[in-house]
Amino acid sequence: MNHLDSVPVIKEEVKVIVTPKVFLASSPSVKEFLIEKGLFLFTILSSILIFFVFIFVAKEAWPVLRANGLAFIFTGGWDQDFYQAWVATAKEPSWHFGALPLICGTIFTTLGALCFTLPLGLGCAIFLVEVCPPWFFKPVESTVRLLAAIPSVIYGLVALLVVVPWIDRHLITNEMSLRMAKVAALDGTSLLAGILVLGMMIVPIFVALAADALRVVPKAYKEGSLALGVSHWRTIIKIMLPVAKKGIIAGAILATGRAIGEAIALSMVTGSVANIPNPSHGPVFFLEPLRTLASTVVDNAEGMGVPTCESALFACGAFLLVSCVILSFFARLVARGQKQGGGLNG
Amino acid sequence: MLNTVNEKTKLQARELSAWYGRTPALKKVNVAIPSNSIVGLIGPSGCGKSTFLRCLNRMNDLIRSFRQEGKITLDEKDIYTQDTDIVLIRRKVGMVFQQPNPFPMSVFDNVAFGVREHNRGVNGKKLEEIVVNSLNQANLWDEVKDKLHQSGLSLSGGQQQRLCIARLLAVKPEVILLDEPCSALDPLSTGKIEELLLELKKSYTIVVVTHNLGQAFRISDYIGFFLLGQLVEFGPAAELAVKPKEKVTADYISGHFG
Fold first, then answer.
1. For labelling, which of A69, A81, A164, A200 has a CA lying 20 to 30 Å from the CA of A236?
2. Contact A226 B90 (CB under 8 A)
3. A332 min Cα distance to partner chain B (Å)
4. Would residue B3 be called left, alpha or beta, if left means φ above 0 and alpha means ψ between -120 and 50 degrees?
């Protein structure tokens, strides 16, 4: 039958509930009132909790941030600093920390992962929504969702057992190891391993969000374009992707947030050395070990007993928090732009 | 039975049957659509007229459960063969939908979109000329000449529908299919679209599905009456209006249906 011709008309019946005054105490309106206020209370409580997390982290991070100022961001030597602070006596604590290597580590791994996640994920999302035959869609979609749910330590473990030895055996030459001996030991734990494992971890999130964004592109746009004799492929590129653009960007931002915050898997495969991989070293850049802000909090957790070290780790945490806030702010900005500027409903 | 007409046949369906999954939507439809005429398709909801329309430019290919048998020819060439270039068919047989669906881009870009896609070389003055001509042809130019760079979505419903027609005219199709183009529009806008269609039939072959019998008889040269997936009757509009051959047609037209 032709479903296009029939527009179902749904009439909503409004039931009027008459409540005698005697039963007012247990009337639906009182129940609703209680539920509403209860939910409101929970909302307030969780907001307050988050607020206190911020206050707490800021308070703990403050001594190190105050002692170092901008030098915290712009100087290196974290590992030595941390050791100095660790062995310093309580009377003469060492407050000097330089987190540049950690910040670079986070930026390099995140950007690297995005570089291969975005094209791969977008391709995958387009395939899922536009190309994939229905019998194949379910298994692929379930797999993607499963991938998103796998604990990161599993990704780390697989990468540590498979990717890291592979890099060590096939990509690192003796000549490279000798040349880099003074900088860092090349053993496969590297930026490349970090990028690969991080990319694999954020692909599913990005695919899921990008596919959702593509799926809600009004069918009318697609049909309109096809009916002009524009090919399916060009329709995807010129109509569907631009319309879904904002949702896709929001997905990319969320994936970035996940990448920045990832600690365990990266701690396992990037060598846990506060080294800044140097692009001027050529391709070896990708084979150098490093450590990210989030991994540092995990890897150096044994320093928590020492007030200086503790504060330094909280300073790393503060950076992560701030970057996440900035990202979620951007995500919100993009989402709001979609509502206002898109006007998809005409 | 094959409907024979004296004029040159543009589109022809032979023994066309179609199904959505197992539900039959069309049963052995035979019809010849003459060029440079307006063919109105009428019938109650769910009778298969939109399905038939969407067969003519293979729009139904988008529906996975859709299946068809029989033949449709465009200029005597089968459009359902293995090696048919669907994109080319849709270029020749364009479609306007029930809900106006301008793209979320400027009025200018809406019209220029198809042209740019089909001929990457066209730009600047030449492109502008095509856009202005198309808007003129669609009787929309005067209303939008000052807002070419505003979003197509900012226009009124009737203007949006004419914008959709303009964007179709810009790619120079041979046949224009319209699926209840006025059902979302007010009477004034409907009148403008009808006038426009009457002008356009000089250069195009037009097939229009409509629920508005008045409209069907006002603008059509030929009328086809669909019922339960069958083309019950097809003939010149004037004849159908006065003395339809089938009783159901007469009942439907006079409003005594069911």
1. A200
2. yes
3. 22
4. beta
Do B46 and A6 make contact, defined as CB atoms within 8 angstroms?
yes
The ipTM estimated for the assembled molecules is 0.89
Q: What is the DSSP string of B205-246?
A: EEEEE-S-HHHHHHH-SEEEEEETTEEEEEEEHHHHHH--SS
Identify the bridge partners of residue B31 per DSSP, sorted by sequence position: B13
Higher pLDDT, B182 or A25: B182
Could you report the per-residue pLDDT of B38-71, keeping only the tens digit for each?
Answer: 999 998 888 888 999 999 999 988 888 898 899 8
A11 has pLDDT over 60: no
What is the distance between the terminal CA atoms of chain A, rounded to a whole angstrom?
29
3 state SS of A28: helix
Contact A270, A292 (CB under 8 A): yes
- Amino acid of residue B103: F
Under an 8 A CB cutoff, do B98 and A342 touch?
A: no
pLDDT at A26: 60
Contacts of A274 (CB under 8 A, 6+ apart): A76, A77, A78, A79, A101, A102, A105, A290, A291, A296
Give the model's pLDDT for residue B63. Answer: 87
Residue A346 vs residues A157, B90, B154: alpha-carbon distances, Å: 50, 25, 7
Nearest beta carbon to residue B103 from set A2, A221, A234: A221
Domains of chain A: 74-342 (1.10.3720.10)
Minimum CA–CA partner of B111 in chain A? A228
Lowest pLDDT segment from A157-161, A196-200, A339-343, B83-87: A339-343
Helices B157-169, B124-137: axis angle to 10 degrees equals: 130
pLDDT tens digits, one per residue of A187-224:
989 999 999 999 999 999 999 999 999 999 999 999 99
Nearest-CA distance B1 → chain A (Å): 23
- What is the three-class DSSP state of B4? coil
A225 reaches B (C-beta below 8 A): yes
| Residues in B touching A217 (Cβ below 8 Å) | none
pTM of the model: 0.81
Considering only CB atoms, which chain A residues are within 8 Å of B25?
Answer: 1-2
* B9-253 fold: Rossmann fold (3.40.50)
